[in-house]
Amino acid sequence: MKRCYNLPNGILSMDGTLIELGIAPSCRDASDYHGRKLQWSISLLFLNDLNRKVRYYLAGFPGSAHDNRVWRNTKPYQNPEEYFGPTEYVICDTAFDPSSFCIPAFTADVGFSQSADKQLFNFTLSKPRVSSEHTIGILKGRFPGALRKMSLLLTHEKKSMKKILMYID
After folding, report:
1. Could you tell me the pTM of the whole model?
2. Which of 4, 34, 20, 19 is nearest to 136 (CA)?
3. What was the pLDDT predicted at 3?
4. Which of 61, 102, 130, 160 would be a feasible disulfide site paired with 155, CB 3.0-4.6 Å?
5. Quick check: helix, strand or coil at residue 126?
């Protein structure tokens, strides 16, 4: 990222998306799968490089799960030393909490404008972050049955979620 975007040691971009379920879940926690954007959905988090190659993903959380909650349950978050060097990090949007290996854009407080430095940082970060949006768009375009609207039923049985996750994988 340094070569293209002046972000030394930034190695990945991260973003979340939702996979719509075409059939309402019939499990005890069905209401959790009612997401903020879609009728029924499953969360999917991608970490990709600037060449739009997926380096890690996690799927299966209910559509109502916040991206940061999904991120906190990933192996890269729980074991960063296995995924990042001492100065390496992933860039992301404001949905994620900052850490030594996760650098989100700055948020603006309601009613206040950001400093020029924060605006410049966010602008610099926005260019490579587009790669994660492109990665998700490319995958949803290539695999519409799996990543746009899935026609598999989610029930209280574990095997139904396993079937959905196998379909995504």
Report:
1. 0.86
2. 19
3. 56
4. 160
5. helix
